[in-house]
């Protein structure tokens, strides 16, 4: 399944509210390879005050954090707020099911990843959805807008 064009996506205001409310991010598909985008973005998020929870089926630890094979394997006392997805669009529906089961608040698919059916399912369950946008870029823009001094 290729990346779809999002039929509905988060507005700038909705993205702002995500960054204002949440700071715990389960990164599904976080790579152990420092050259991969998921690792670079995970590192950025960690360096910018987010608590990251690596989700990788084989890794024990990534970026100094304990890794879990799936969202469902994250301990129940850890509140997953944002699920940042670095997996193919065809896998997003299953990830949404898992995100719903762990009471996540946001599904965020990175650039090149969108699945409208899965997004509708997430919204129906009360999750906010951001598709086909880089969390690092959006956070950087949000930070800079906060720093702007009104004229």
Compose a concise summary of this entry.
With 151 residues, the protein is of the alpha/beta class. 35% of the residues lie in helices and 17% in strands. The chain contains 5 helices and 7 strands.
Task: Characterise the protein shown here.
- The longest helix has 13 residues, at 135-147.
- The termini are far apart.
- The chain has helices spanning 12-21, 37-47, 92-101, 116-124, 135-147; strands at 24-28, 51-55, 61-62, 65-66, 82-85, 106-109, 128-130.
- The protein has one domain: NAD(P)-binding Rossmann-like Domain (Rossmann fold, 3-Layer(aba) Sandwich).
- The chain is an alpha/beta fold.
- The protein has a 5-stranded parallel β-sheet with strand order 2-1-5-6-7, sandwiched between helices. A two-stranded antiparallel sheet has the order 3-4.
- Strand 3 and strand 4 (65-66) form a beta hairpin.
* Biggest β-sheet description: 5 strands, parallel
**Level of helix content?**
25-40%
User: If strands are numbered along the chain, what order do they take across the biggest sheet?
Assistant: 2-1-5-6-7
Radius of gyration: 15 Å
């Amino acid at each position: 399944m290729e990346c779809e064009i999002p039929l509905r996506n988060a507005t700038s205001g909705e993205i702002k509210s995500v960054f204002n409310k949440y700071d715990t991010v389960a990164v599904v598909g976080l790579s152990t390879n420092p050259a991969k985008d998921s690792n670079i973005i995970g590192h950025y998020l960690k360096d910018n005050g987010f608590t990251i929870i690596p989700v990788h089926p084989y890794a024990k630890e990534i970026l100094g954090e304990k890794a879990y094979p799936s969202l469902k394997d994250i301990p129940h006392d850890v509140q997953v707020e944002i699920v940042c997805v670095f997996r193919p669009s065809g896998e997003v529906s299953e990830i949404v099911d898992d995100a719903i089961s762990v009471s996540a608040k946001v599904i965020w698919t990175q650039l090149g990843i969108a699945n409208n059916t899965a997004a509708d399912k997430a919204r129906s369950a009360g999750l906010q959805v951001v598709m086909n946008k880089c969390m690092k870029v959006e956070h950087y823009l949000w930070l800079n807008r906060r720093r702007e001094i009104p004229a």
